Amino acid sequence: MNKNQIVGRAIALTAAIFYGVNSTLSRLAYDTGTTPVSLTLYRFLMSAALMIALVLILRKSWKLKVNPLLFAFCVSGMFATAIGHLGAVNYIPVSLAAVIFYTFPLYVVAYQRIAHREPLARHELIAFVLAFVGIAIALGPDFHEFDPAGIALAFGGAIGATVFILSYEKFPPQTDSYVSAMWIMITSIAFALLLQLGFDLVPPRASIGWIYLVMIAAASVISFVLSLQAIRRVGSAIFSLLLNFEPIVILSLAWIVLGEELSPERISGIALIVFALFLSHWRVARGRPQPVVAPGD
Q1: First-last CA distance in the chain
Q2: Which of 34, 203, 234, 280 could disulfide-link 8, Cβ–Cβ 3.0 to 4.6 Å?
Q3: Predicted local distance difference test score (pLDDT) of residue 108
């Protein structure tokens, strides 16, 4: 494994941590009275403002030379991921939402094997399956709390994540991750505004809710930029697998912040996820083309 691969995997794991923080903060924000649709709009507005400021501070060019259709797929995937993953937890248990959402690495692998016939090492395929099984064991969803809206949102988020990851992987190698993130965030605001037309804008009822929203926006910017950089370095398949570290973060925060019990079953599931991540690093399949790092990254 070369230095680029090691750095890319470290970046992906860091992104997973911030995604986990985001999920926990979203649950806390809902408790202050806001709704999934409102949270999505606030998130993109604040995240876009932060990205614009960051691009200005770094003095980067605003030009983004990407195929418009490819960019549209990427943005739609990003938006579906946000409204699906973060919205589902308002209707179904966080555990059930996470188990459904984290089927997306398997969709990424299926697409690559069927559409592109990309070879995948046996140990990597086993790692994907073990990671998903570990998530199911660790989160132990309560299926009696089934809600069709929440289930649909979680599956929509999984499909959105798949579309986003596969689309961004096809961006030109020279594409800057900061500029890409900025334009994707800005464009996503239009999607959020259209969605908002059918709903009332519901702000948090308590001041702490606004603090949560700012923290969500900051975590979103960090995790999103890191995700773009990781995809470019390690590719969509390995990136998707490493994001399975997020449920570990969610469970840990639920134990520390929310006071939820960490049962033996959940500990066993976490151990299986960690083993799957270790297995994915066992060796790099020979002959696989390495992703190209964009100069702007």
Answers
A1: 20
A2: 234
A3: 82
pLDDT digits (tens, 9 = 90+) for 241-295: 788 788 778 778 877 886 767 677 777 877 787 787 677 656 544 444 444 444 4
* CB burial readout 111-147, b (16+ within 10 A) else e: bbeeeeebeebeebeebbebbbebbbbbbebeeeeeb
> What tokens appear for 164 in the block?
């986003």
- The answer as to whether 296 is a domain residue is no
**pLDDT band at residue 70 under the 50/70/90 scheme:** very high
Structural domain includes residue 297: no
Tokens representing residue 162 in the block: 């798949």
pLDDT for 287: 41
The tally of domains found in the chain comes to 1
Q: Within a 10 A sphere around the Cβ of 263, how many other Cβ atoms?
A: 12
Amino acid at 259: G
Domain range spanning residue 260?
A: 3-280
Whether 287 is in a domain gets the answer: no
Highest mean pLDDT pick, 167-171, 197-201, 260-264: 167-171
Q: From CA 73, how far away is CA 88, in angstroms rounded?
A: 22
Long-range CB pairs of 279-287 (<8 Å, 24+ gap) are: 279/123, 279/124, 279/126, 279/127, 279/130, 280/123, 280/124, 280/127, 280/238, 280/241, 280/242, 281/1, 281/9, 282/123, 283/121, 283/123, 284/1, 284/5, 284/121, 285/119, 285/120, 285/121, 285/124, 287/119
Domain contains 222: yes
